[in-house]
Specification:
Largest sheet: 2 strands, antiparallel
Shape: globular
Strand content: under 5%
Number of strands: 4
Helix content: 55-70%
């Protein structure tokens, strides 16, 4: 790996850090109802939306049960609308290529995928969906699903800011509307214009016909791509307008758009952590958690970069030069765009899975075993920053467990941000934590044992197993990327991944909102000499240790059967 490549990676991460600081403080102003410079523009829009929903329900405070019920009901109504658009798209306008309605089981999978911020796709966008479906059933929920994850995290934080016990953790509709109008809409509009300038199409034409120099006729698919791409990355949604995802020149036409895509995936998940510090009045606490997440990112991301640059013994035996130089990239370039190279492809793969976005600019199925291991780890831990709100909540789950264990070890009453952590909270966070491995490991085991699961594998043995493990890890983590060698468009995988997406999304939200309600009702305890402080570097190290130990105990056996075993099998080729 050249010095230039490492400098590219370091500069990208540094820019992401610098952007997240002011954005985090701006988010805190939005969610706490303080004035922002966008208020004069969007207050009238907010008023119209509140009027349509109902001013009474948008103005009243909610306890955790009311907040959660309204969230689930709103998501359900939107899901029904999305499903109907997909199934009946052949009867709806803006379908110039006359695509048929989506098959019902695939439509179920697609609906739950996009309403939950997962954006797993078992179809090719440009050959399956009309422009109306791309906008109304795909782009629209990218806004609402991103906002849903964010507002749940904000409601959870508010529970720790209630000083004398109480039930109010905010209003779901007000939170959803303010985040959408003050953050997502203006950012995607400005960035969409930039993406158009860089060469991404934004049109209602479905295709154009090109006549090549040698006389061939080629159909080039088009559509409202620029608006899709901005919210896709800013909302940590993932998904793809075209089947090739962000490796397609219309989705990612220039090195500058590639950089912007990476930064968009970083900015809001990282900013939420700093917003958290602002909301609880302890910036140091926010930076402690930011540091824990940042250390994990810096631990795992270089493994992917170095592994891809090292290449494989098979490439070496074929006489391919694996060392990077000024004239050739070296390493493993299979499945990667030459214009992005190994450094930008490995960085993109790490960011998209550790920030659980799911967009890809290279084919992860073609990565080396350890290169593919890194995205798996990011999705399994789901708190190396993680997706919008969800990754932050998962980090707090580990934090609550860490403070409980540490309190027991040193003989102090477990407290988290001034609230006692007792048996009910530990039961609820444990349930939230256990759902994730359950919905990854159980269906993976069933799929590799059942004929209808094995039939979809394009590779036998360890790599085929890794393809299945990746599919369910991606579904459970609300990620959406894939080891694309697996044919997931079958009744089994459409139903199995669909239910994994649902279970991986909503029960943890319910459990964490129940924790918020329990915590909000408790009085705040003053800091004393006996308080176990959570805003110190010592607790940060313990927090990190709990994440890594629990993650290893949960997922290491599954990883040993797949990418780790494949790595040692690959290394054994050197002996022959």
């Amino acid at each position: 790996m050249t010095l230039q490549a490492w400098l590219q990676i370091a500069l990208t991460l540094l820019i992401g850090l610098l952007i997240s600081v002011p954005v985090g403080r701006y988010l805190a102003r939005v969610v706490t109802g303080r004035k922002t410079w966008l208020d004069p523009v969007f207050d009238p829009m907010d008023s119209l939306i509140y009027l349509a929903i109902g001013r009474r329900i948008c103005g009243r405070p909610m306890d955790w049960k009311s907040y959660t019920v309204n969230l689930l009901a709103t998501n359900f109504v939107m899901a029904v609308i999305i499903y109907l658009v997909l199934v009946f798209q052949d009867h709806l306008p803006l379908n110039p290529l006359r695509f048929a309605g989506m098959e019902p089981i695939l439509a179920f999978n697609t609906t739950v995928s996009f309403i939950t911020n997962t954006d797993w796709q078992a179809y090719g966008g440009e050959t399956t969906l009309s422009n109306l479906s791309q906008m109304a059933a795909i782009t629209f929920p990218m806004f609402t699903s991103a906002a849903t994850g964010f507002v749940v995290a904000m409601a959870f934080i508010r529970a720790f800011t209630v000083r004398n016990g109480g039930a109010d953790i905010g209003n779901f509709y007000r939170d959803l509307v303010r985040l959408t109008t003050r953050v997502l809409l203006p950012a995607t509009f400005v960035l969409g214009v930039f993406m158009i300038q860089q060469g991404e199409p934004q049109t209602l034409d479905a295709a154009v016909t090109a006549h090549a120099v040698q006389g061939q006729v080629q159909t080039i698919m088009l559509g409202p791509v620029a608006s899709f791409e901005t919210i896709k990355h800013l909302g940590t949604n993932g998904g793809a307008f075209f089947n090739a995802n962000a490796s397609h020149p219309y989705e990612n036409p220039t090195p500058l758009t590639n950089l912007v895509h990476i930064l968009l995936m970083i900015v809001l998940p990282a900013s939420i952590v700093l917003c958290f510090g602002e909301m609880i009045g302890n910036r140091r606490q926010g930076w402690i958690l930011y540091g824990v997440m940042g250390v994990m990112l810096l631990m795992f991301m270089p493994v992917a970069v170095v592994s891809e640059q090292a290449g494989t013994p098979t490439l070496a035996k074929a006489g391919i030069e694996l060392a990077a130089s000024s004239t050739q990239p070296g390493g493993n370039m299979e499945g990667k765009e030459v214009r992005f190279g190994i450094a930008q492809s490995s960085l993109f793969a790490s960011i998209t899975t550790m920030f659980t976005t799911g967009s890809v600019n290279a084919m992860h199925d073609s990565f080396t075993p350890l290169g593919g291991l890194v995205p798996l780890i990011g999705m399994m831990l789901q708190c190396v920053f993680g997706g919008k709100g969800v990754g932050f909540l998962n980090a707090l789950v580990y934090g609550i467990i860490a403070v409980f264990v540490a309190g027991l070890m040193v003989g102090r009453t477990p407290e988290f941000f001034g609230k006692k952590i007792e048996k009910p909270e530990i039961i609820l966070v444990s349930l939230a934590l256990l759902i994730h491995p359950l919905v990854i490991l159980a269906p993976t085991a069933l799929s590799v044992a059942a004929p209808y699961g094995v039939a979809s594998m394009s590779n036998a043995g360890m790599h085929g197993y890794s393809e299945v493990l990746y599919a369910f890890a991606s579904s459970a983590a609300n990620n959406g990327s894939a080891f694309a060698g697996l044919n997931a468009n079958t009744p089994w995988y459409n139903l199995a991944t669909g239910f994994v997406i649902l279970i991986g999304r909503y029960p943890p939200i319910i459990f964490m909102m129940a924790v918020a309600g329990s915590v909000a009702a408790k009085p705040t305890i003053a800091v004393t000499a006996g308080t176990l402080r959570t805003d110190t570097s010592l607790f940060a190290a313990f927090w990190l240790g709990v994440i890594l130990v629990v993650g290893a105990l949960t997922f290491l056996p599954a990883l040993v059967l797949g990418p780790i075993a494949e790595y040692f099998a690959m290394k054994s080729q050197l002996l022959f």
